[in-house]
Amino acid sequence: MNRVLVASDLDRTLIYSARALALTGPDERAPRLLCVEVYQGRPLSYVTETAAALLAELAARTEFVPTTTRTPAQYARVHLPGPPPRFAICANGGRILVDGESDPDWSRRVERAVAGSAPLAAMRERLLDGADPAWLRKERVAEDLFAYLVVDRARLPADWLEETTAWAHAHGWTVSLQGRKLYAVPRALTKSAALREVAARTGAPLTLAAGDSLLDTDLLTAADRAWRPGHGELADQDWRHEGVTVLEEVGAAAGEEIVRRFLGAAEAAGAGGAAEAAGAAEAAGAGGS
């Protein structure tokens, strides 16, 4: 029997850095945490112990597909509870991993799709034009597909961001500011395209999704049912869409609630079919929409 497909963003949706955990606020009781990522010998990302148990159950009961802007190498550092996912979507949809290996056919299709945008070199040049060491910390290229900057967000000039975003839009690119990272991604490079590909391969009767950033909007709207947390880029813009439930929870509590919603929808699908599951998920989320 084909299983429900759950495609979820990772950073600041399911997993949280120490910095992002502060989203819960100074007065919140500190949750018990499980480290799910270590980088250069240091713990980097966490889930709560409650979320860890829920994620293990989710991975066992659904076709759980981590869906991230991270490169495959960055994604490989993350070790979530439960069995390793059969599929993962990385590089904002630019790479589909099958049992941990990048699918070459999908990569070739993506390269053809992004050819309609201005070249990566031109976008990088525009990103660095006017960049100031006072706020620019790093500049990186991911999989030869897109670029991103690590910035001091408090010092990032609003006018530079507006002008760069406008240039990118006119040349077939999307700009998204997520925490300390400013991403520039070809418009054709989307998580939703990869989601549809994985859904077709698995024959999933129902697709569920979650995410917090501008780069997740197409993923959220492409799924049958989706959720976004009460924090993040989309929350800052008060972004809403039919079929996407807005949660009140923020920080790690939002991560827990998202997994609960996934499990509820998957259980409804098993009990009454995909159509009933979509309706049940919508009803369950009505209070937070």
Task: Describe this entry's structure for a reader.
With 289 residues, the chain is an alpha/beta fold. It has 2 domains: 207 residues, Rossmann fold (3-Layer(aba) Sandwich); 69 residues, Alpha-Beta Complex (Hypothetical Protein Ta0175, Chain: A, domain 2). 37% of the residues lie in helices and 24% in strands. The strands form 4 sheets. Strands 5-1-13-14-15 form a 5-stranded parallel β-sheet, sandwiched between helices.
Short overview:
The protein has 289 residues and is α/β, with parallel strands linked by helices.
Please tell me the total number of domains: 2
Cα-based radius of gyration, to the nearest Å: 18 Å
Biggest pleated sheet: 5 strands, parallel
- CATH class of the largest domain, anyone? Alpha Beta
Tell me which CATH architecture of the largest domain applies here. 3-Layer(aba) Sandwich
Poorly predicted runs: 273-278, 283-289
What is the overall number of helices? 11
The CATH homologous superfamily of the largest domain:
HAD superfamily/HAD-like
Structural class: alpha/beta
* CATH topology-level fold name of the largest domain: Rossmann fold
Order of strands across the main sheet: 5-1-13-14-15
H-E order: EEHEEHEHEEEHHEEHEEHEHEHEHH
What overall geometry do the principal axes of the alpha carbons give? globular
Distance between the termini: 31 Å
- Average the pLDDT over all residues and give the rounded result: 91
Query: What percentage of residues falls in helices of 4 or more residues?
Result: 25-40%
Structure summary, number of beta strands: 15
The fraction of residues assigned to DSSP E strands is 15-25%
